[in-house]
């Protein structure tokens, strides 16, 4: 019997007239994830993707790649079997017999209504073969082993395990966004969460070199590299904020420095977004977590841009964010020592409930602010990342 990976989606199935668009986006992303395995035979077949495997295919590596493809609900390594029920039950039994289990169930999904047996009848015949031979009871609620059978388009497949995918919508299906990526824990998770909604993320990182070391610069590139496995290509823009910070420090009230830094960062990120044709900004802000993330301060910062600002983590508590960072592999990088540009010469008690008029007034007396921001844009770097690496 030939081995085949069967891939299912969930949310895409709700798209009705647009389903084909999302299917083809997901197909393209699966092929991009597996491009170094020279796989090009992926087919869309009756609401599922079918990927025939050569005998020497590195299944574990392929499974790991598929686990990171946004849009997949679940997938399995399956065997193509005979539609003849007497042959099918023996083929299934041959693979079940070596397994160790104390209870089992058979779940059949019959999309092909021309097949002569119902799902229940297939379950009964295959299940009876296993029970009679092995004397193992059936348990339809919490079995040790589940035999999955799929019947569609005059084909029959079965498999014994199901690997959960990430779900969501295929990356690039919802357009481009720009994420303000720090070296901390939150913004990489926010970037990942927006990828799950089908967005392709372009990263912008601000650093204060030479006033600080370049640890955050290198950490940000590593974070973007780790996140790239969910979208296969990425750009990270690295913007030097030091000169602008000097100008703010020289004249602005200490309590407002952090807000003025953030306003400048939002304006600069919006310019990068417009250059890239992106339609929104993404931040890792969580309401009330730090001084700049109170409602008053969020409003004072956000007013300087016209693009929408999405905050995927706005209601998340820190423990939830940390758990997700660990899951996606960014946590270990985020906790490495670095100097955050936003903490550069910020007082111990920054303003937490800023009045917008006070912030505007403080910003209005900074000399050559627009020129400084333009200089930053002229000197920014852009690093391009590919996954799998070329």
Description:
This protein folds into two domains: 3-164, 2-Layer Sandwich (VC0802-like); 176-386, 3-Layer(aba) Sandwich (Rossmann fold). It is elongated. With 390 residues, the protein is of the alpha/beta class. The strands form two sheets. Strands 1, 2, 3, 4, 5, 6, 7 and 8 form an eight-stranded mixed sheet that branches. The protein has a six-stranded mixed sheet with strand order 13-12-9-10-11-14, with helices on both faces. Helices cover 38% and strands 19% of the residues. The model has no long low-confidence stretch (mean pLDDT 93). The two termini are 34 Å apart. Strand 10, helix 6 (215-227) and strand 11 (233-240) form a beta-alpha-beta unit. The longest helix has 20 residues, at 257-276.
Protein topology:
Blueprint: E1 3-8, H1 19-33, E2 43-44, E3 48-52, H2 59-67, E4 74-81, H3 85-96, E5 104-110, H4 119-134, E6 145-152, E7 155-159, E8 163-164, E9 176-180, H5 186-195, E10 200-207, H6 215-227, E11 233-240, H7 242-251, H8 257-276, E12 281-282, H9 295-302, E13 309-310, H10 318-328, H11 331-334, H12 356-364, H13 369-379, E14 381-386
Parallel strand pairs: 5-6, 9-10, 9-12, 10-11, 12-13
Antiparallel strand pairs: 1-3, 1-4, 2-3, 4-7, 4-8, 6-7, 11-14
């Amino acid at each position: 019997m030939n081995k085949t990976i069967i891939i299912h989606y969930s949310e895409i199935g709700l798209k009705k007239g647009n389903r084909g668009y999302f299917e083809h986006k997901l197909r393209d992303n699966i092929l991009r994830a597996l491009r170094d395995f020279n796989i090009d035979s992926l087919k869309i077949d009756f609401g599922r993707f079918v990927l025939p495997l050569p005998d020497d295919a590195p299944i574990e590596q392929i499974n790991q790649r598929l686990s990171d493809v946004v849009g997949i609900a679940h997938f399995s390594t399956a065997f193509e079997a005979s539609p003849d029920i007497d042959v099918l039950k023996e083929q299934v039994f041959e693979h079940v017999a070596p397994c160790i289990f104390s209870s089992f169930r058979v779940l059949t999904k019959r999309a092909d209504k021309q097949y002569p047996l119902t799902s229940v009848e297939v379950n009964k015949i295959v299940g009876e073969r296993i029970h009679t031979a092995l004397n193992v009871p059936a348990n339809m609620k919490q079995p040790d082993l589940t035999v999955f059978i799929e019947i569609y388009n005059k084909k029959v497949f079965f498999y014994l395990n199901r690997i959960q995918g990430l779900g969501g919508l295929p990356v690039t299906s919802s357009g481009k966004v720009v994420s303000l990526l720090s070296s901390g824990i939150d913004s990489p998770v926010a970037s990942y969460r927006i990828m799950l909604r089908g967005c392709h993320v372009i990263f912008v990182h601000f650093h204060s070199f030479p006033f600080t070391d370049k640890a955050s610069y290198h950490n940000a590139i590593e974070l973007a590299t780790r996140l790239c496995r969910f979208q296969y290509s990425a750009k990270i823009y690295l913007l030097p904020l030091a000169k602008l910070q000097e100008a703010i420090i020289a004249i602005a009230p200490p309590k407002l420095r952090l807000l003025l830094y953030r306003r400048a960062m939002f304006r600069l990120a919006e310019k990068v977004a417009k250059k890239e044709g992106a339609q929104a900004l993404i931040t890792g802000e969580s309401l009330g977590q730090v001084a700049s993330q109170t409602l008053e301060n969020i409003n004072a910062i956000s007013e300087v841009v016209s693009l929408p600002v999405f905050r995927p983590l706005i209601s998340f508590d820190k423990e939830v964010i940390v758990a997700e960072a660990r899951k996606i592999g960014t946590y270990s990088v985020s906790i490495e020592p670095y100097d955050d540009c936003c903490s550069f010469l910020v007082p111990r008690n920054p303003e937490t409930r800023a009045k917008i008029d006070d912030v505007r007034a403080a910003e209005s007396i900074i000399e050559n602010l627009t020129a400084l921001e333009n200089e930053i844009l002229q000197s920014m770097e852009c690093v391009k990342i590919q996954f799998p690496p070329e």
